[in-house]
Amino acid sequence: MQLLTLVGMLITIVSVVFAMANTTEVTVTLLSSSFTGPLGVVLLMALGVGGLIVALVSTPGTLRRQWRIKHLDKRVAELEKTCASQKERIARLERGEDAPQLTPTPAFDVNASRLMF
Q1: CA distances from residue 62 to 4, 58, 59, 68 in whole angstroms, order as listed
Q2: Is the pTM here over 0.90, yes or no?
């Protein structure tokens, strides 16, 4: 966090020095409107508009990736929980505890009372 603050301050200082060094008046015409101002200010405004466009274009993809990562993290947690419970069950079965109860069931039951309608 402090690194981002330092980088932001450095960019701000460089931008101010750049704007002060480029004081030549320029006129920018876009469609039917025009703007006159110092070259440094015009260039910084163009840089800001470009950054805004990049941010707007890249936001949907970033949000989609963040949603997918969050979804996959939940799935990993579920699978780890299932894996831990399966390992615990395997350990109990190896110790002889919690053995499955097998009840014999006849393959074919021929009870005439059940056959009545």
Answers
A1: 20, 6, 5, 10
A2: no
Half-sphere exposure of 16 (CA within 13 A, CB side): 5
CB contact at 8 A, 24 and 39: yes
Give the C-alpha separation, 51 to 38, whole Å. 20
DSSP state of 102: P
Q: Judge contact between 18 and 40, C-beta under 8 A.
A: yes
> Which regions of the chain does DSSP assign to beta strands (E)?
25-30, 33-38
State both tokens at 5: 């603050």
- What is the CB neighbour count within 10 angstroms for residue 40? 19
Residues 6 or more apart whose Cβ sits within 8 Å of residue 38: 19, 22, 23, 24, 25, 26
Taking CB atoms within 8 Å and a gap of at least 24, the contacts of 13-18 are 15/44, 18/43, 18/44
Taking only the tens place, the pLDDT of each residue in 17-61 is 888 887 888 888 888 888 898 888 888 888 888 889 988 998 999
